[in-house]
TrEMBL record:
UniProt organism field: Mizugakiibacter sediminis
PANTHER family to which the protein is assigned, alphabetical: HTH-TYPE TRANSCRIPTIONAL REGULATOR LRHA-RELATED, TRANSCRIPTIONAL REGULATOR
Assigned protein family: Belongs to the LysR transcriptional regulatory family.
Upper lineage: Bacteria, Pseudomonadati, Pseudomonadota, Gammaproteobacteria, Lysobacterales
The HTH lysR-type domain, residue ranges: 9-66
Record's protein name: LysR family transcriptional regulator
Length: 298
């Protein structure tokens, strides 16, 4: 429409808005961005003026997004991703090399396509080799220099160049749309587990033993795909995190079926070198950026 005022959203303001929602606190966002809380509040007021509608509403003691806020948040994330991708492409237009990345199966579908897609568009001359493997193998390969980067669960031993990313809750996993399998009337709880050694398998057994609940190994798998198939078929329950669950299974609610509480599980990004090549550093930065939202929703 001729004469209609064109709105130009400020990317800095959008970043404060998106980060505040991700972290669940605009005070935390201000701290992360190195700004005062009052400065971020002023940015939010400016954003609402530009949008011409309230973006946040009170919900109990906290804040929640309005319909307009939810709409803008989706666009804000897309704009920021494109901005960051453009900046990386311009700065690293000559970036070349080879990056060997190791991941748990949990991150294969949720994290990998997004991160590798963004990285490949920005740095088409860098070759990325990905290995999906169990935790112990990932850590061994990084320590031996056969992987440049590995995203692995915290197994207690901290590598020389490891960065703690955050914590994820362990959860009991059952079939979607069905009550948890077995464990009724004093019968041992049937467990679906990965082959030992496995951090989550050990955590499940330890939690059941502490609670004095009988259990039995009903199904052992070498892969997560086999685990999910067995749980979906009702052969037993498993333990994993909420990350990367297929639609055929679900994370059980706390205390469901009398199952005991489980601990948090640390997640770390391990580097083979203290000062890795530029291509490795750039991929690591993208992984950390993508994990912020993923861990917040876990």
């Amino acid at each position: 429409m001729i004469g209609m005022r064109r709105i130009h959203f400020d990317l800095d303001v959008l970043r404060s808005f998106a980060l505040g929602i991700e972290l669940g606190s605009f005070a935390k966002a201000a701290e992360r961005l190195g700004r005062s809380t009052s400065a971020v509040s002023a940015q939010l007021r400016k954003l609402e003026d530009q949008a011409g509608a309230p973006l946040l509403r009170k919900a109990g003691r906290g804040l929640a997004l309005t319909d307009a806020g939810e709409t803008l948040l989706g666009y804000a994330r897309r704009l920021l991703d494109l901005n960051d991708e453009a900046a990386a492409a311009v700065r690293g237009v000559e970036l070349e090399g080879w990056v060997r990345l190791g991941l748990q199966e949990d991150f294969g579908e949720g994290l990998l396509p997004e991160v590798l897609g963004r990285f490949a568009r920005a740095h088409p001359r860098v070759r990325v080799e990905v290995r999906i493997a169990r935790n112990a193998e990932l850590l061994e390969r990084v320590a031996a220099g056969r992987l440049d980067l590995a995203l692995a669960w915290d197994a207690g031993a901290v590598g020389a160049h490891a960065e703690r990313v955050g914590e994820v809750p362990m959860r009991w996993i059952g079939a979607a749309g069905a009550p948890p399998a077995g464990g009724r009337d004093g019968e041992p709880l049937p467990l679906v587990v990965l082959e030992a050694p496995c951090l989550l398998r050990s955590a499940a057994i330890a939690a059941l033993d502490r609670a004095g609940l009988p259990w039995r190994i009903a199904f052992t798998s070498a892969s997560l795909a086999g685990t999910w198939a067995a749980v979906a078929a009702g052969l037993g329950v498993s333990v994993r995190t909420p990350l990367g669950l297929p639609g055929s299974v679900r994370a059980l609610a706390a205390g469901e079926a009398g199952l005991p509480a489980l601990p948090m599980l640390g997640l770390g990004l391990h580097r083979a070198e203290a000062q890795p090549p530029a291509a490795v550093s750039r991929l690591a930065a993208l992984i950390l950026q993508s994990l912020e939202g993923l861990l917040h929703s876990a």
